[in-house]
């Protein structure tokens, strides 16, 4: 499946060459010595829970601001945003409800009960967690954004649980003291997608401002056709509405956000790729790449409701910040477990195939009702002499009510129509934390961070056979455990001339243990373990960041992370080709020993005045590797190379009319699907393009996603393949005031 590495580097190498070609000297000559745009290093970030310039923070971080998101078309897809960040792998399962983000080879969980290995924060509120979902950002989290930060490497000391691979923090646009807003219309030709995004900002008085934001979209068509139901598996529609009110007086600033989003999402889409001679499939079974034969449309539904309150109070001694939030996420997924309808199964069995599949009506529905209460309060001092410090307290209380319903065809020997498997999980956590910085010399700074976490988890599972509701002993259990951990980080930063810094950092991260909710089919060759232990990671990192000439900001980092009791996803061994257990596999979490992950990351960002216009270019590349020490197997979902580049150019055409063009490239190569599987990840090179004009308050653009019509497997197994979306064309109109 892999093409030569040289081919994969063509676009990335060309982008880096273009970035270098526009060196400060040549650009100045072409623009008559005009002043270049502000360096990306001046962007303000909150990586250490206080506002600092990106160039001053001894953390490997990437920042995407609202301007970049608008240039790319007001993106609400986390994968599209994260494809431009080194060291990040978006695990696209083909369904937004259980896709997952990983950083620097951090572990995955997907369809299991484990926490994510990446801390997910929105407006300073932790938004991860839950049996279904909670391992990626949702559409509503990316609507009307102000900033998107990716902090790579363990962030356990300041960001707490599950930040073993790093943390992602997103900030929604808050009310401002003006009258402004936008309406963005989007139409996509191949899928008939219609989308409207809008925001309205209004200053009620000198102290009060409000902001209203909304989105509606409807995509009745798609690329992945279910021939049995005559519909598209990747159809989707939904809406989101958000209201905010902000109060500001002297040194006090507070904001209240309330929102509600309801979505019909694409569910799992899979094609069979069983070669001839496989058990149960002597003739082989390969379905068309974008066609399925499932008993239902395999829909997924999700509703997300949030209330978030934030405040800051500034004094001569420092800044007190607080954030409290309630988030409810309701998710429902329906899956045809065997991926056959009765007619297709009968046809295959008539030709001596699909002998291991005995029930075309096998199905699984998952329902998850997840609620979380979160609070964080911290005080960041002003620098006094050589010392600065921060203290904080974090609280989390989650309640997860989940239900799995399995369906089957009743028989005389077994009249059951399926099982009803309800359960409930509770997670309570509290953690005090703090940091202290000390200026050893005017050029050398040291900072230490520490957090103590105390977690308690409880889980109950029940099983009943339908329609009699007779208890199922194997599916009934009750577990509880307590976990505690001390996370720390220590960094040394040395400031060089010309605003360069070099740094060294040691940091830890922690992911709590837990319990596997689904014990799976009792016929499975690999039994599901009932529980798993906490995971602890320690990372050693060195890096440098600063300006290359007047126009390019560069960051370079190298790291090695050691993880004890690595939590890995394991499958129970069931498959349609398994004569003992001919159903879809069940994934569960198990501690598989010690893992080591390493990598090198490079990013470069530049902004120039060029030929009467403005040019912005970003490029990044990362090389990573790692293995499970007990077996020597590579870490799963950890490509050897990740690369990206983006170029955006804007200039006047005539009068007040401006033209613009945006090219965005992302690619990856190497790596494996699972830690216990020989299946390799498909290489990929994706190019998106967007061109248009802007005049007065109107912007009109045309775009093409996957311009090169790349085709690859986003997620595969021994019998199935899930493919990416083909090329898509669309138009956008944006009006702002």
Instruction: Evaluate the radius of gyration.
Output: 26 Å
Portion in beta strands: over 45%
Tell me the number of strands: 44
| Helical proportion, percent range | under 10%
- Are there runs of 5+ residues with pLDDT below 50, and where? 1-38
First-to-last CA distance: 49 Å
| Assembly of the depicted chains | single chain
| Alpha-beta content class | mainly beta
Shape category: globular
- Number of DSSP helical runs: 6
Major sheet size, sense and barrel closure: 22 strands, antiparallel, barrel
Average predicted confidence as pLDDT = 88
Task: Provide a concise account of the structure shown.
With 737 residues, the protein is mainly β. Helix content is 7%, strand content 54%.
Topology record:
Elements: H1 5-21, H2 24-31, E1 44-45, E2 52-53, E3 60-65, H3 66-71, H4 78-82, E4 88-91, E5 100-103, E6 118-122, E7 125-126, E8 145-152, H5 156-159, E9 166-172, E10 180-188, E11 193-203, E12 208-219, E13 225-226, E14 231-232, E15 236-249, E16 252-265, E17 271-274, E18 285-286, E19 291-292, E20 300-314, E21 318-336, H6 342-350, E22 363-381, E23 387-407, E24 418-439, E25 444-461, E26 464-466, E27 470-471, E28 477-496, E29 500-511, E30 514-515, E31 531-532, E32 535-548, E33 552-564, E34 567-571, E35 587-591, E36 595-610, E37 613-628, E38 641-654, E39 657-669, E40 684-695, E41 698-705, E42 713-716, E43 720-723, E44 728-736
Parallel strand pairs: 6-9, 13-19
Antiparallel strand pairs: 1-2, 3-8, 4-5, 6-7, 8-9, 10-11, 10-44, 11-12, 12-15, 13-14, 15-16, 16-20, 17-18, 17-43, 20-21, 21-22, 22-23, 23-24, 24-25, 24-26, 25-28, 26-27, 28-29, 29-32, 30-31, 32-33, 33-36, 34-35, 36-37, 37-38, 38-39, 39-40, 40-41, 41-44, 42-43
């Amino acid at each position: 499946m892999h093409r030569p590495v040289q081919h994969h580097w063509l676009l990335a190498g060309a982008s880096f060459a273009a970035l270098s070609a526009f060196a400060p000297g040549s650009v100045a000559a072409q623009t008559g010595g005009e002043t270049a745009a502000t360096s990306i290093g001046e962007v303000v970030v909150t990586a250490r829970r206080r506002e600092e310039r990106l160039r001053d923070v001894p953390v490997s971080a990437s920042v995407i601001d609202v301007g970049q998101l608008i240039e790319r078309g007001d993106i609400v897809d986390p994968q599209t945003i994260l494809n431009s960040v080194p060291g990040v792998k978006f695990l696209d399962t083909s369904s937004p409800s259980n896709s997952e983000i990983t950083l620097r080879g951090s572990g995955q969980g997907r369809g299991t009960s484990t926490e994510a290995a990446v801390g997910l924060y929105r407006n300073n509120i932790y938004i991860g967690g839950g049996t279904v979902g909670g391992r990626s950002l949702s559409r509503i989290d990316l609507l009307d954004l102000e900033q998107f930060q990716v902090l790579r490497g363990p962030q356990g000391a300041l960001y707490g649980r599950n930040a073993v691979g790093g943390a992602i923090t997103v900030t929604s646009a808050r009310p401002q003291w003006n009258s402004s807003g936008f309406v963005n219309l989007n139409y996509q030709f191949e899928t008939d997608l219609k989308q409207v995004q809008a925001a309205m900002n209004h200053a009620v008085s000198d102290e009060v401002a409000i902001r209203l934001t909304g989105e509606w979209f409807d995509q009745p068509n798609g690329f992945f056709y279910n021939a049995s139901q005559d519909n598209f598996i990747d159809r989707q529609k939904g809406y989101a509405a958000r209201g905010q009110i902000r109060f500001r007086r002297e040194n006090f600033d507070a904001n209240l956000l309330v929102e509600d989003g309801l979505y019909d999402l694409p569910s799992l889409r899979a094609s069979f790729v069983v070669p001839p001679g496989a058990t149960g499939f002597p003739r082989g079974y390969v379905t068309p790449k974008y066609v399925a034969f499932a008993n239902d449309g395999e829909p997924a539904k999700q509703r997300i409701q949030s209330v978030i309150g934030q405040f800051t109070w500034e004094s001569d001694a420092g800044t007190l910040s607080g954030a409290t939030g309630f988030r409810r996420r309701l998710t429902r997924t329906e899956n045809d477990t065997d991926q056959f309808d009765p007619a297709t199964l009968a046809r295959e069995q008539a030709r001596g195939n699909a002998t291991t599949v005995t029930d075309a009506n096998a199905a699984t529905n998952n329902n998850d009702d997840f609620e979380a209460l979160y609070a964080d309060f911290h005080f960041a001092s002003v620098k006094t002499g050589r010392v600065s410090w921060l203290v904080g307290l974090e609280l989390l209380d989650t309640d997860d009510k989940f239900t799995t319903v399995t369906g089957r065809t009743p028989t005389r020997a077994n009249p059951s129509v399926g099982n009803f498997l309800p359960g409930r999980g509770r997670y309570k956590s509290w953690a005090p934390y703090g940091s202290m910085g000390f200026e050893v010399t005017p050029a050398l700074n040291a900072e230490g961070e520490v957090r103590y976490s105390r977690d308690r988890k409880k889980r109950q599972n029940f099983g009943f056979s339908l329609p009699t509701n007779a208890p199922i002993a194997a599916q009934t259990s009750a577990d509880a455990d307590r976990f505690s951990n001390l996370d720390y980080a220590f960094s040394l930063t040395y400031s060089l001339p010309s605003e360069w810094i070099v740094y060294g950092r040691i940091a830890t991260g922690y992911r709590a243990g837990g319990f596997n909710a689904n014990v799976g089919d009792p016929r499975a060759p690999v039994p599901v373990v009932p529980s798993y232990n906490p995971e602890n990671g320690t990372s050693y990192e060195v890096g440098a960041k600063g300006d290359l000439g007047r126009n390019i900001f560069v960051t370079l980092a190298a790291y090695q992370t050691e993880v004890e009791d690595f939590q890995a996803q394991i499958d129970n061994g069931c498959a349609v080709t398994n004569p003992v257990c001919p159903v879809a596999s069940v994934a569960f979490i198990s501690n598989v020993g010690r893992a080591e992950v390493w990598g090198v990351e490079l990013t470069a960002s530049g902004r120039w005045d060029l030929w009467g216009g403005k040019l912005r270019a970003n490029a990044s590349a990362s090389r990573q590797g790692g293995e499970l020490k007990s077996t020597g197997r590579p870490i799963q979902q950890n490509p050897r190379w990740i690369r990206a580049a983006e170029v955006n150019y804007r200039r006047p055409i005539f009068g007040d009319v401006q033209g613009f063009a945006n090219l965005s490239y992302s690619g990856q190569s190497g790596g494996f699907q699972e830690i216990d599987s020989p299946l390799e990840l498909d290489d990929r090179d994706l190019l998106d393009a967007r061109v248009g004009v802007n005049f007065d308050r109107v912007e009109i653009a045309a775009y093409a996603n996957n311009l090169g019509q790349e085709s690859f497997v986003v997620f595969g197994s021994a019998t199935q393949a899930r493919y990416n979306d083909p090329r898509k064309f669309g138009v956008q109109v944006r009006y702002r005031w």
